Amino acid sequence: MTDGKIGINLTRHVHQEQMEHPEATGELSGILNQIAFAAKIVSREVNKAGLVEILGLTGDENVQGEEVMKLDEFANEVFLNILGKSGHFCIMATEEEAEVIPVPEGHKRGNYSIALDPLDGSSNIDVNVNIGTIFSVHRRVTEGTEGCEQDLMQPGRRIIAAGYVVYGSSTMLVMSTGNGVHGFTLDPSVGEFLQSHTDIRIPEKGKIYSINEGNYPYWTTGVRKYIDFLKEKDKESGRPYSGRYIGSMVADMHRTLLKGGIFMYPADKKDPKKPSGKLRLLYECAPFAFLCEHAGGAASTGTMPVLDVVPEDLHQRVPFFAGSKYDVGQVEEFVRKYDEG
Ligand code: P6P
Fold first, then answer.
1. Which pLDDT belongs to residue 27?
2. For 270, which of 100, 212, 218, 233 could close a Cys bridge (C-beta 3.0–4.6 Å)?
């Protein structure tokens, strides 16, 4: 996937895209540069977390009722501070805050809204597993100065830019503004994200499935039968598939984008408070669905494209099946046959 075009940095890439697509406003490069700036700061902390006493739990809980790691809070603060003062946004939302976040007093309200998970996979921080930031940008739909929830609660089909940062052996930013999916790897020696992956394409069909099998007893019949099917021996279709599950959405989806296959977090009956599964629509599923579709793959709730879901709540959860088009289509067939029939 890498094409040796090292030397093009994120700024230049987005500028070139805007030259080719004048319909996009000039703000996109500013937005992505601010996201990259915040990501560099978070990357520095993540990479030294093992060395300083930052791994401890704060003992606080976020709106999801999950223990908040200090790095979660740090990442949340960094992104909100930098993006809130960038002048590009009229309203923001993050996984860490129950309510929408206004732009700080005295700073310009811009034409966009942003929803983000500042540090997804935080439960993996203290075992040194890849974690990440996920973001989704919409154009505002309301008039006036202050933005509001309506500017965030838009279907993913209307996203104008989305992406993620994966903090791992290297820090990589993968994004799309609707003209292909591109990857940029941070060169800490120059402090720049340099293009390392151009026009990422998800293979039409994969041979890896990624799901938390511990939830098997709680899935619908259709999902259970699909997972059983993937394990049956069938040389022609490449089954049994290999199982890979890291438990960090950014890491699992990064592999799925590059190698294909299917990542799943279905609805399950394990927690009555989460009847639609665990992953959130606005700042986890919709941005990854946007990337999957622009990389030639698909992302479904099991019954409809994730990008067509009209949000009803800021922290709404949806069942999520994403990756190779063939594989996502196949799980939809099992859901149709066994769960809707
Ligand atoms: P489970 C991390 O907490 C997260 O939100 C995603 O990054 C990840 O895909 C999922 O939860 C893992 O959840 O229930 O399999 O541990």
1. 83
2. 218
Q: How confident is the model at residue 286 (pLDDT cuts 50, 70, 90)?
A: very high
Prior bond to 311 cis, omega within 30?
A: no
Residue carrying structure tokens 């000039």: 26
Residue 120 CA, ligand 1 centroid: distance in Å: 8
Ligand 1 atom 5: residue of nearest CA: 121
Evaluate: CB of 249 within 6 angstroms of ligand 1. Answer: yes
Distance of CA 188 from the midpoint of ligand 1 (Å)? 28
State the average pLDDT for the chain.
91
Atom of ligand 1 nearest to the CA of 265: 9
Measured from the CB, is residue 62 less than 6 Å from ligand 1?
no
Is pLDDT at 61 greater than 90 in this prediction?
no
Sign of the alpha-carbon dihedral angle for 92, 95, 100, 102? negative
Of 125, 122, 113, the residue nearest 47 (C-alpha): 125
What is the topology classification, in CATH, of domain 208-338?
A: D-Maltodextrin-Binding Protein; domain 2 (3.40.190)
**Over residues 183-199, mean pLDDT:** 94
Nearest CA to ligand 1 atom 9: 249
Q: Which amino acid is at 96?
A: E
Query: Quick one: pLDDT band at residue 56, thresholds 50, 70, 90?
Result: low
CATH (one of 1.10.287.600, 3.30.70.260, 3.30.540.10, 3.30.110.40) for 10-197: 3.30.540.10
Domain with CATH 3.30.540.10 in the chain: 10-197
Ligand 1 atom having least distance to the Cα of 120: 7
CA dihedral 290, 296, 299, 304 (to 10 degrees): 100
Please give the pLDDT value at position 50. 57
Averaged over 245-259, what is the pLDDT?
97
**What is the model's pLDDT at position 302?**
97
Residue 55: per-residue pLDDT: 54
Cis preceding-peptide flag for 266 (omega within 30 of 0):
no
What's the predicted TM-score (pTM) here? 0.93
How many whole angstroms from 122 Cα to the centroid of ligand 1? 9
Q: 278 CB less than 6 Å from ligand 1?
A: yes
- Looking at residue 284, what DSSP letter applies? I
